[in-house]
Write a structure and sequence with these properties.
Length: about 350
């Protein structure tokens, strides 16, 4: 009976908990480390926005982006670089501390502003068919926006797709290992991260291409092997993960398996506690019955002893004790004592 009740409880909890799977929040958390990278032209007429791209934080106060995004600031002193975080006070000045056109990567350093969380980089080898997510600031999402709009903190855009293929060369023909994927990117996405579905960086979005005879497009990302080599040469140690990202179906199954295991463990623990309680209850009942019987026997024995003593006392009553009363006669008050003259006279006469 106890086990049936426990199994019913476990089944009810499973039905309640095994509803629609909740989407992972890792991508949402990663968005806090995505920034817009802007190139600013300082002129006598004021500050002007020259160009923009995307970037992401790889270590405290360090941002990775594409080399071509900040090329103008690298080549001409009148151009400056800044980042715009997804939230906070707005424009934050930055400077280029490493620049590699061969790997299409650049490293920026900034100070001040909001605390931006570094992203985690996955060291797991990607495969065709894996789900991916692209984060960044594509210009297609900002049609009609002014330069001032682009300098205000805004959350990044998000697109998703699958890895189409892995290549050893970039679209430019350079020997850069790349990922061709179906997540939609455009100008402005350059420098943003390509992420697995667990929110870990697997590439840096650098190009978007289309077929010569079709409208089919591909996003092309620099693979993390190139990124890690670039960061190592710069003396940067990013957050790394070697855990494989589970697919949505695998995550659902893993969550349900974990839920079932937890419920079974709770079921067994509950059944064990109920059995222990039942055993202790039985022991307590036995002790109570035994104590009651012992008390009853003791009362009976005591009653028998008392009754026996009373009956024995009525058959052998002791004889009554008679005391002899001695009466004393005290002389009456003021009564003169009688003189015994006769006896004295006789005694006196004899002496003569």
């Amino acid at each position: 009976m106890i086990r049936k009740a426990a199994r019913f409880l476990a089944a009810a909890l499973f039905v309640a908990l095994a509803g629609p799977a909740v989407a992972q929040t890792s991508i949402d958390e990663a968005e806090r480390g995505i920034v817009r990278v802007v190139v600013i032209l300082e002129s006598p007429d004021g500050r002007m926005l020259y160009g923009s791209g995307s970037g992401f934080v790889v270590a405290p106060n360090l941002v990775v982006t594409n080399a071509h995004v900040v090329a103008a600031a690298r080549q001409r002193p009148e151009f400056g670089v800044a980042i715009v975080p997804p939230a906070g006070d707005g424009l934050i000045a930055a400077r280029i501390i490493r620049y590699s056109p061969l790997s299409e990567l650049a490293l920026l350093e900034f100070s001040g502003g909001a605390d931006l969380e570094p992203l985690t980089i996955s060291t797991v080898e990607p495969h065709a068919g894996d789900g991916v997510v692209a984060l960044g600031y594509p210009d297609v999402d900002y049609q009609g926006a002014t330069g001032a709009d682009l300098l205000r903190p805004t959350p990044p855009s998000r697109t998703s797709g699958q890895i189409a293929s892995l290549r050893d060369r970039a679209p430019t023909g350079d020997s850069i290992p790349t990922i061709n994927h179906q997540a939609v990117i455009s100008s402005g996405s350059s420098g943003g991260p390509l992420m697995d579905e667990c929110g870990r960086v697997i590439g840096v979005n650098s190009w978007h291409v289309s077929g010569a005879d079709t409208r089919e497009t591909r996003g092309v990302s620099t693979r993390v092997g190139q990124l890690l080599q670039f960061l190592d040469e710069a003396g940067v140690s990013p957050n790394l993960s070697d855990e494989r990202c589970l697919t949505f179906t695998e995550r659902v199954e893993a969550e349900r398996t974990a839920t079932i295991d937890a419920l079974q463990a709770q079921n067994e623990e509950l059944a064990s506690k109920l059995e222990t309680a039942d055993r202790l209850t039985r022991i307590a009942v036995v002790i109570l019955i035994g104590g009651t019987l012992a008390l009853f026997v003791a009362v009976c024995v005591l009653g028998a002893v008392v009754l026996s003593r009373r009956r024995g006392g009525n058959g052998h009553a002791p004889a009554p004790h008679h005391e002899t009363v001695v009466q004393h006669h005290d002389p009456e008050p003021f009564e003169a004592p009688r003189r015994r003259t006769g006896v004295v006279a006789i005694v006196g006469g004899a002496s003569n």
